[in-house]
């Protein structure tokens, strides 16, 4: 969970720096979109209650995993759609080429929560079926 939260927060670097330096996005647009995304991401991460938590459960008073995951997915999707709408053709090509990675990471996040190695006492997808689902996700990402 920690690594994915940090990885997705890094998407703001793409919008504010990489896409601007390469001329795929106007500087002001990249900065505004990235700051909005980063602000939303920090809010979602704090309310989610899982980040920087050393136990197998979310902090007290935090969102449950379904709401947390939905908020994460919505924030990322809206950010990518906004970046795509404001980008040049070349920028859209790069965004389109990276969507598979975002989808794969989100799928693995769900699997890591509901699978045999997740925090649930009784996993929704028990071992070894969780590994079979991971295999299917991996093959789908490959093709």
From TrEMBL:
Segments passing through the bilayer: 6-25, 32-51, 63-83, 95-114, 126-142
Tagged with keyword Transport: no
Signal peptide residue numbers: none
Name of the protein: Putative UDP-N-acetylmuramate:L-alanyl-gamma-D-glutamyl-meso-diaminopimelate ligase
One function term, GO molecular function aspect: ligase activity
Organism of origin: Streptomyces viridochromogenes Tue57
Keyword check for Ligase: yes
Keywords of this entry: Ligase, Membrane, Transmembrane, Transmembrane helix
């Amino acid at each position: 969970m920690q690594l994915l939260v940090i990885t997705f927060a890094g998407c703001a670097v793409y919008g504010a720096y990489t896409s601007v330096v390469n001329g795929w996005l106007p500087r002001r647009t990249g900065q505004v979109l990235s700051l909005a995304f980063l602000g939303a991401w920090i809010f979602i991460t704090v309310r989610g209650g899982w980040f920087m938590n050393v136990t197998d459960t979310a902090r007290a008073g935090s969102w449950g995993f379904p709401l947390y995951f939905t908020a994460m997915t919505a924030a990322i999707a809206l950010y990518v759609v906004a970046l795509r709408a404001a980008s040049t053709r070349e920028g859209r090509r790069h965004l389109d080429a990276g969507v598979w990675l975002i989808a794969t990471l989100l799928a693995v996040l769900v699997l890591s929560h509901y699978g045999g190695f997740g925090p649930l006492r009784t996993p929704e997808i028990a071992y070894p079926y969780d590994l079979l689902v991971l295999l299917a996700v991996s093959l789908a990402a490959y093709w």
